[in-house]
């Protein structure tokens, strides 16, 4: 099932993303001509990585019986060299629970193996765009 993005004509730049029955807005900031009514495309790209890391850590902890109570992932972007082919993302994992240092390191390693991390850091993405 494809992901679709449709224009919301009630606002200058707002669009609605449709994914498997889920809908959410995307927009740009006011200084870019939007109304900031939703995250932008770069935000979604960054959030894909952060959410993948969070989901992977929880999945791994459950599978290994690690007493993880909660995880929060913060991500910061440095797009200052994006036009030169370098897009930096720094993630920080906040782990809570009765965890030893070894378990914390194990969960950190699991986060580094999330599918989106692998995709962003090792795969060449080929994109085609055509007219409908």
Describe the protein in words.
This protein has 132 residues and is of the alpha+beta class. Helices cover 33% and strands 27% of the residues. The chain contains 3 helices and 5 strands. The protein has helices at 41-64, 101-111, 115-122; strands at residues 4-7, 15-19, 22-26, 68-78, 88-97. The protein has a 3-stranded antiparallel sheet with strand order 1-2-3, with no helix packed on it. A two-stranded antiparallel sheet has the order 4-5. A hairpin with a 7-residue loop joins strand 1 (4-7) and strand 2. The model has no long low-confidence stretch (mean pLDDT 97).
What is the gist of this entry?
With 132 residues, the protein is of the alpha+beta class.
Beta-strand percentage range? 25-35%
Q: Overall mean pLDDT score?
A: 97
Form type:
elongated
For the biggest β-sheet, the strand order reads 1-2-3
Order of helices and strands: EEEHEEHH
Roughly what percent helix?
25-40%
**Rg calc:** 18 Å
Instruction: State the major sheet.
Output: 3 strands, antiparallel
Q: What is the class of the largest domain in the CATH system?
A: Alpha Beta
Poorly predicted parts:
none
| Oligomer kind | single chain
Distance between the termini: 16 Å
Q: Please provide the count of β strands.
A: 5
CATH architecture of the largest domain: 2-Layer Sandwich
CATH superfamily of the largest domain: K homology (KH) domain
Number of discrete domains: 2
């Amino acid at each position: 099932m494809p992901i679709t993005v449709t224009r919301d004509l009630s606002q200058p730049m707002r669009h609605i993303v449709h994914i498997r029955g889920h809908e959410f807005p995307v927009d740009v900031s006011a200084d870019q001509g939007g109304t900031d009514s939703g995250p932008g495309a770069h935000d979604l790209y960054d959030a894909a990585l952060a959410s993948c890391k969070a989901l992977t850590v929880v999945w791994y902890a459950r599978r290994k019986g690690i007493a993880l109570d909660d995880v929060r992932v913060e991500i910061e972007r440095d797009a200052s060299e994006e036009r030169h082919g370098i897009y930096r993302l720094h993630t920080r994992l906040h782990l809570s629970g009765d965890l030893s240092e070894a378990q914390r390191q194990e969960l950190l390693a699991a986060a580094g193996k999330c599918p989106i991390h692998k995709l962003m850091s090792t795969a060449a993405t080929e994109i085609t765009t055509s007219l409908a």
